[in-house]
Every structure is written in C-alpha cells, then in structure tokens.
Amino acid sequence: MTGRAPTPASAADPSQTSLWVDDAFYARLEAEIAAWQGEGTPVDEATRRACEALLHREARLLDAGRLRDWLALFTDECLYWIPAAPGGGAPRREVSLAFDDRRRLLDRIARLETGSAWSQVPPSRTARLVANVEATAGDAPDEVRVRSTFVVHELRRGVVRALAGWYGHVLRRESGAWKIARKMVNLLECEEGLENLSLVL
Amino acid sequence: MTRARTALAKPKPSRGRFDAYVREDRVHRAIYTDPAIFEEEMTKVFGGTWVYLGHESEIPAPYDFRLGRLGLRPIILTRDRAGAVHALFNRCMHRGATVCREPRGSARSFTCAYHGWTYDCAGRLTGVAYPKAYGPGFDKAALSLREVPFVQTYRGFVFGTMNPAAPALPDYLGNARPLLDRWMDRFPGPIVVRSRAHRMTYRGNWKLAFDNAADAYHAPFSHRSIQEMTTARYGFGRSLSHFAGDPDDGPMYVQSLGGGHTFLDQRPAMGDSLWAQDRPIPGGDAAVAALRARHGDAEAARLLELAVGEGMNLNVFPNLLIIGNQIQVIEPLAVDRTCLTWYATTIASGVPDEINTLRMRMQEDFPNFGEPDDQANFEECQVGLTIPEIEWLDLGRGLRAGEPTDERGVTTGRVTSEVTLRGYLQEWKRLMNADVELTVAVAGRGTDGP
Fold first, then answer.
1. B183 and B152 together in one domain
2. Of A136, B32, B139, B158, which is least surrounded by CB within 10 A?
3. What is the CATH number of the domain that holds B301?
4. Count of domains observed in chain B
5. Is residue B339 part of a domain?
6. Mean pLDDT of A93-105
7. pLDDT tens for residues B184-203?
8. Residue A32 CB neighbour total at 10 angstroms
9. Is the dihedral of CA B395, B400, B403, B407 positive or negative?
10. Which chain B residues are Cβ-neighbours of A23 within 8 angstroms?
11. Do residue B178 and residue B158 come from a single domain?
12. B178/B140 same-domain check
C-alpha cells in the first residue's frame, strides 16, 4: 500500500469538505482491517513509548472533556471510527456506530457544545485505562499502527458502566510530532444493544 | 391443522378493563410503568396482533437463519430448503433450552447442546439420542419445534401473529400499505437489509418510542442541538430547519391511519432536494465528484436523492417504524427497558455502489446526533412517571381542532397534533380489552388461519 497524493489545495480544507474520503480511502481502510489481524513488525522502543504517551494524553483529554484539544491531536484528514462489526466489517456496505471524518467530528463536538445535547446533559464523567500497547510499522515510513486495550468507566445519571474493547490507532509523524490519522474503536458490545453511546470513546 | 393451545395461566377477563387507562384526552401512567400491564401486552399485543419479525433479505438463501423475538419469546427466523420462511420458537421440546445460540448464520439443522435433540431448519425433530428408551410408539413428529403459526410477508417484510382471529396481513396493514409501497417504490431496486445495525437500548417503556415516532412536536426541542449546530456550521436551511417557527403554520401534517398505524409527513416542507437539505456526510463531496464525472450533473443529482431518506415517518403498530432510510424495530425487554434497533437499508440494484455507501454514512447521522437525545428524554419520562400520585399524561394537542376523518378512516391533523397518539392508543386499548387465545403450531404440520 502506498501513501496517497495530497488533495489539491483549492479543495483541501477537511473541516469543510470530504473529497478525500474516496475510493482510495476506503480501499486503504479495508486493507488496514486485515492488517490489524496480523502480527506486524514491532517498532523501536523509543517510538513505542512516544506512541503510548500520545494515547495516554488522548485519554486524559477525553476524560477532561477537552474535545477541541483532543481533536488537535488528529491529522487534518482523519477518521474516528466505531465499527458495528467486530474488527471493522465492511465499511462501504455496512453502517458503523460512528464514522466521523474531520467535518463530522466538528459537527459532533459543536453539537455537544450547544448545551442542549440532552444525552450529554448532564455530561458523562469518565475514567479510562489504555493498556497492552503494541506498536508496529505502518504502511509508510512515517506511520505506526498502535493496538491497545481500553476500559472506559462512565458515570451518568448516578450509574457507572464499563465499556471495553481495543483501539487501533494509526499514527503519523507530521513536522516531528505524532498525530492520529485514524482511530478505530472496537467495542466488545458493538453488535449488542447499547445504552446512550453519546460519549466520545 | 394441529394447534397446541395454551391451557394454563388463563388471563383474567379483559372486557372494558382498559377503558380506565386510555381516555380521549389523556392516558394513565400505569400503561408505561405497571409490570402486570406489560406482561399482558406481551400476549395481547405482541402475539395477539401482527408483529414485524424481520426482513426476508436478512435470510436470503435456503438454510439461512437469524435470531429474533416475538415480544419476549425467543425465535429463530429460518428459510427452509424450499425457500419458505419460518419463525421457530427457540426452545427445545425436551427440556426447554434454546437450540440456536448464534445470532445469524446458515444451518441445515439445529442440535440442542444439552441432550442432543436435532431439528431441521423447518423445525421438524429429526433425531433424538438413544431413542430406544422412549419405547416403540414414540411420536417424534409431535415433539417437533413449535413455530409462530401465522407468518406472512409483505414485499419482504416478515410479520407473525399467534392469533387465529387476526385479519389477513394486507388488511392489517390497511392504510399503511400504500405508504409502505410508496417508500419502496421510490427506489429503482428492492430495499434490502444487508448491513449491521444500531441497537440502542434505553431505560423506558416500549411505547415511548412508538409515541415519539409520529410526534413532530418534540423536534424543535428534543433536537435543538442538531439545529443549533447545523445552523452554526452550515447556515440556516439544512437538517431540521423546516421545523423553525410554528411548524403548524406550514404544510407538514400527521395522520392516524387506523389500526394503530401512524404517519408523519415532512415531505411538503423539505424543498426540491433532500440531498441539498441534509448535513454534509463523510465522503459526500468525493461521491458527488465521481458521480458527476461518470454520469453528468443531472443524472448525478438524481442518484444522490436516492442516498437520502424521504421525510416520512411511517409507523406500523406495534413495532415497525419506517423512518428516513431506516427500518426501525421496537423490541420490548421489560416494562422499563427497550431496544430500538435501526436497520440500515441498501438498494439492491439499479444504483452505483457509491449511493449505497452514502446511504450507510447518512444512516449514521441521526443515531449519533438525534436518537440519543430522544432516548435520554424517554428515560426521563420513565423517571417522572414513577410518581404514583400524578396519574395522567396529556394527549390534548389538536383534539378540539376539528380534525377531519376521511372515508378510509384516516384522521389528519396539523403537524404537531397528538392525533397519532390518540389514534394508536385506541387500537392498543381495543387489543388489551379483548380476550385472545393464542396458539402455537407444531413445525411440519402446516397451519390455516389469517
């Protein structure tokens, strides 16, 4: 798999357009679903630690409800994805529990910020653990695939529940810093009835 | 035909008992909170009338199956070798264990994991372990799985009832039928269910979802966040902007269709292009570019309309909601717990693949940005309704507006009228006031009836 040519600058603002979620994007996503099942080639320990630190920071920002700061961890052309099928399924043919490009992520955050997104009024409080972090070489020299296990404890309306599963992060180095290009959230209960999934996982 | 009648647990006589709960302008909280009423509903409504069980396209080939429910009863929806659809009760006739435990798949037979009894995909008992102990006169056929005795399909939608006195399915669908036709006929190919689903569970009674499905009054309030966000990000004119101002001054309307079915029609206020009105979706711009390059602007515009759900909420009592592109199914779990499943739909033929991919992205929108807020409000209703001393919910909107009823029995109200709630609750009351004798069929023996 090779990297894609960047979208022409005239149409490139991914907060406003989604030209880049095209055939090639989906093809790459489908290839990635298969790649997550493989062992991969571990990256060096310093890189693994840097990736892990980014995941920890991400978890902290989400627990603090700092969604704008959280979004700043992502590349411009990014995906936040909760498949409805274990491991990913067929995103072109199947609905997902969430499939957010940058534009839809901005919709999501703006909606939560209105104060009238009743499913998050009052907002959930969360505490999340991210562990078992494995980092393997990605499809390009500046990309790493990071697989981890998560548990999110969520308190809402006096009830605590736990949501667990595994994250698949594709991180890309941009201007010397690791950013999240794609985040896949594989929930254990993705095929089951789920209460109020309005928090960001 | 052979029927196994339910001889035990005869319910108390029903005649008129539920008149006290459903009045012309109000409804009693107990129908949302009383476990005993819920238990009766699981017989008289879920079983006593036609209930949507699934879509034929979910089990397209012989031997395909998927698990489901008729009310609280676990069923296996199967397609037998000859292609006929069955709704088998998922209960071994020996000791009662479920015989199928996979949510979906393909199987020529089901073998109970407990003692090894084996049934074919039409439910017939084909083998028991060590049969000698049952003696020489062992009637294996009598111990075939039980099945929903009346299963009928309307253009892919599979319904079942256990009530021999139920009307034929097309008659039951009644005034909902031409609207269901209209929903399907808009597309060049059959509408099918091939995708996963959003299964959204809430801590509230199942009727809160049916109430909401033709309730336009809630849209500007329950979904305020969508409208604020959309206007802030994309300007006024998209998404739910047609609810701005007093929606009763506009051309939208609601209808009580009779038989408990309800309809909310937003189409008259939605402008020329559904695609242009919806919020942008992931990959939308790429698909527009690809479709225009391949088909030209006019054809691309025509195709894009097929990615978007029409502004129809068509609700078939008690559990099937056709809303936008989705087939939504209400699954009661307990008096105060319900799963609302949104099955995404695909156009089986006649459109480029991009259109179906756009449909998937479109069908992620409301389950993320709309339904959770409704369900949060359902849950808060359930909390408020626990107060025993405050007994009634108000149903009065539009009651004194002189809403006309036509010769088909369809009553039309302005869009925020509660004529839909009043209408379906009359059917609910009729069913609850009637004593029914439900039956099950012995698989392999055939049935007559509706």
1. no
2. B139
3. 3.90.380.10
4. 2
5. yes
6. 97
7. 999 999 999 999 999 999 99
8. 18
9. positive
10. 286, 290
11. no
12. no
- Is residue B2 included in any domain, yes or no? no
Residue B90: domain span: 50-162
Torsion sign, CA atoms A21, A27, A28, A34: positive
- Statement: the pTM of the whole predicted model exceeds 0.90: yes
Residue B238 has pLDDT above 70, yes or no: yes
Residues 124-153 of A with CB under 8 A from B: none
| Level-2 CATH architecture, domain A19-187 | Roll (3.10)
Residue B103, classed as helix, strand or coil, is coil
Name chain B contacts of A94, Cβ cutoff 8 Å: 194-196, 344, 360
Mutate which of A4, A119, A157, A201 to test chain B, going by most B C-beta atoms within 10 A?
A119
Asked if residue B115 is part of any domain, the answer here is: yes
Domain residue spans of chain A: 19-187
Q: Are strands B197-202 and A194-195 parallel, antiparallel or unpaired?
A: parallel
Residue B225 lies in a domain: yes
Instruction: Mark whether B228 and B280 lie in a shared domain.
Output: yes
Say yes or no: B102 and B238 in one domain: no
Q: What CA–CA distance (Å, rounded) separates B378 from B382?
A: 6
* pLDDT for the residue numbered B448: 55
Q: List CB contacts of A62: < 8 A, sequence separation 6 or more.
A: A70, A126, A128, A200
Tokens of B202: 């809430």
pLDDT at B449: 57
Compute φ and ψ for B395, nearest 5 degrees. Answer: -125, 25
Give which of A96, A114, A120, A157 to mutate to test B binding, by max B Cβ within 10 Å.
Answer: A96
Beta strand A177-187 with A74-83 is parallel
User: Quick one: pLDDT at residue A151?
Assistant: 98
- How many helices (H) and strands (E) would you count in chain A? 4, 7
pLDDT digits 0-9 by tens, B300-329: 999 999 999 989 999 999 999 999 999 999
B281 shares its domain with B354: yes
pLDDT at A20 over 90: yes
Q: State the number of CA atoms in the 13 A half-sphere of A31 facing the CB.
A: 13
Is a pLDDT exceeding 70 seen at residue A191? yes
* CB neighbour list of residue A22: distance below 8 Å, 6 or more residues apart: B283, B286, B290
pLDDT confidence of residue B241: 82
